[in-house]
Write a structure and sequence with these properties.
single chain; alpha/beta; Rossmann fold; 2 domains; four-stranded antiparallel beta sheet; 26% strand; binds adenosine-5'-triphosphate; ABC_Transporter_VariousFunc; AAA+_ATPase; ATP hydrolysis activity
Length: 237
């Protein structure tokens, strides 16, 4: 569903991504792990078409993202680490705006907005302006906006930051449900426990290089993911 091949990205003379290869398939909950500044957000921004890259190939649903940007965006939902939402809109206005963009018909959108705003405990706040929302509330609204258009690929940058325990629980449940329906989920996280317990596959990036990738159970077969991560980070000196 998301295939990244030989991805190279430079910022000026700084080589930030050095030949990244990742393959996220339908049904995967794929965790992307790495220290601050390792290259997670840069990889994600390249994958969703927010920034250009120097070389390599990225495909979503077997289509090249540069040749078929609209078709790729149609099946993808992306939630950045700091959702930048239209503060002058109310929650309801924003969700309807996103539903319009993705052409979701009235009955379906109403049902989904009701369902997800109930699940994420945001129903009572939907009529308020987004400018009055807390960080966590904005994060929840961004998550609901991503879920209402039934994406085949869900890409999230640090989705659990700022979410309360209840919302965290429901988001994990949503991930599992979506993955059972054949959706592919790719997200970055610093919470190794979440990655170990939730993700069937993981990749660890260090200084723009993938240093470990594969089945979570196989990678963390004899040790916790935290120990493995610490070992991999140690090697850098
Ligand atoms: N716009 C930019 N211009 C120049 N360098 C940048 C830019 N954005 C990111 N970088 C650099 O690219 C590298 C990778 O950054 P990136 O944001 O991808 O890391 P990350 O793994 O997401 O980190 P974090 O866990 O802190 O979010 C860092 O060295 C960062 O300084």
């Amino acid at each position: 569903m998301l295939k990244i091949e030989n991805l190279i990205k430079n910022y000026g003379d700084k080589n930030v991504l050095k030949d990244i290869n990742l393959n996220i398939e339908s049904g995967d909950i794929f965790g992307f792990i790495g220290k601050n500044g390792a290259g997670k957000t840069t990889t994600i921004k390249c994958a969703v078409g927010l920034i250009d890259f120097d070389s390599g190939n990225i495909e979503i649903n077997s289509l090249n993202i540069k040749a078929h940007p609209l078709e790729c965006k149609e099946v993808t939902a992306y939630i950045p680490d700091n959702p930048d939402l239209y503060e002058f809109m109310t929650g309801t206005e924003y969700l309807n705006f996103i539903a319009d963009v993705f052409d979701i018909e009235l009955f379906e959108r109403t049902e989904k907005i009701n369902e997800y705003s109930e699940i994420f405990d945001l129903k009572d706040d939907l009529s308020s302006l987004i400018s009055t929302y807390s960080h966590g509330m904005k994060q929840k609204l961004a998550i609901i906006s991503a879920l209402i258009h039934n994406p085949k690929l869900l890409i999230l940058d640090e989705p659990f930051v700022g979410l309360d325990p209840t919302a965290t629980h429901f988001l994990k449940e949503q991930f599992k449900e979506m993955c059972n329906r054949g959706c592919a989920i790719f997200f970055s996280t610093h919470v190794l426990e979440v990655a170990q317990n939730l993700c069937n596959k993981i990749a660890i990036i260090k200084d723009g290089v993938i240093v470990e990738q594969g089945n979570t159970k196989e990678i963390a077969e004899n040790s916790s993911l935290e120990n493995i991560f610490m070992e991999l980070m140690k090697d850098e000196n």
